[in-house]
Amino acid sequence: MIAPWNFPAAMIARKVAPAIAVGCTVVIKPAALTPLSALALAKLADEAGIPAGVVNVLPTSEELTATVGETICRSPKVTALSFTGSTRVGKLLLSQCAGTVKKCSMELGGQAPFIVFPSADLDKAVAGLMASKFRNTGQTCVCSNNIMVHEDVHDQFVAKLVEAVKKELKFGDILNGATMGPMINQMGVDKVKRHLEDALEKGAKLEIGGGSLGGLYLEPTVVSNVSWESLCFKEETFGPLAAIGKFKEEETVIDFLNTSRVGLAGYFFSRDAGQVWRVAEALEVGMVGANTGMLSCCEAPFGGVKESGLGREGALIGSEEFLETKYICFADC
């Protein structure tokens, strides 16, 4: 089990619990940036009475991460791989698992669409975007990314969003009252800045934010009238930048959003019942939040389609990633 840094305890628990419940032993390779959560969970597992050798943790340095990952993938002793991380790394791990035809479950990157239709309750839509965009400083795989607002309500929605950002978000040290912490590393900071600069160069309007406290702290930022050709609509930003595009026709915006090669989560707001069902079915994603910005829960299957991964975590179906189906025909016993 190769876990990410952004939810270093929750991701491990979601992988390990169903695996040991159906009788598997596990090896956890935590992210090099966040190894302590995995070690703490292993200590708790020991204190809870889980036998030695069932839950194993293999921390690595950044330099050895690729080597250790390849060793896990190529080992015939490992019968299944569960990975959460980027699509680029997921593809590499899949290729390394091919030699042993290993069972793989992959929860990879996303570019979560977030659509606001004319009939939407704008206050609920703003609350939904605040929850799905800025949680964990925008560093989750299901954070809203490709935000599209109908031209009839675009300006009103943006104004309400800016007020919510001013009122609810305070960036800085979360131990001193801030609601948003730092980015994970400089590479993440640089990507957000690059996406913001590109959007502004293509004609977007800076509504709020755009600055930093220095280091890894970025202000929550909103830009409007973003061109559909902008980088932030072609790549996963993974940071506190809410880039908002404008659309006119439902079919056109759905077609554009479905051109993405990834499809993890998607969100939309509408009070038109027919549109709710139509759009929920049309979006090429594994999970849909209709009139909500929070869709993850333990009883629901979590995962995506296209290059967002294989298999599911959570719910009863999550345990099937660690099981094999065997057919036995008895005759004349």
UniProtKB/TrEMBL annotation:
Domain of life: Eukaryota
A Pfam family assignment: Aldedh
EC numbers, comma separated: 1.2.1.24
Keyword Oxidoreductase listed: yes
Class of the enzyme per the UniProt entry, highest EC level: oxidoreductase
Signal peptide: none
Keyword list, A-Z: Oxidoreductase
Gene3D superfamilies, sorted: Aldehyde Dehydrogenase, Chain A, domain 1, Aldehyde Dehydrogenase, Chain A, domain 2
Domain Aldehyde dehydrogenase: 2-328
Official protein name in the record: Succinate-semialdehyde dehydrogenase, mitochondrial
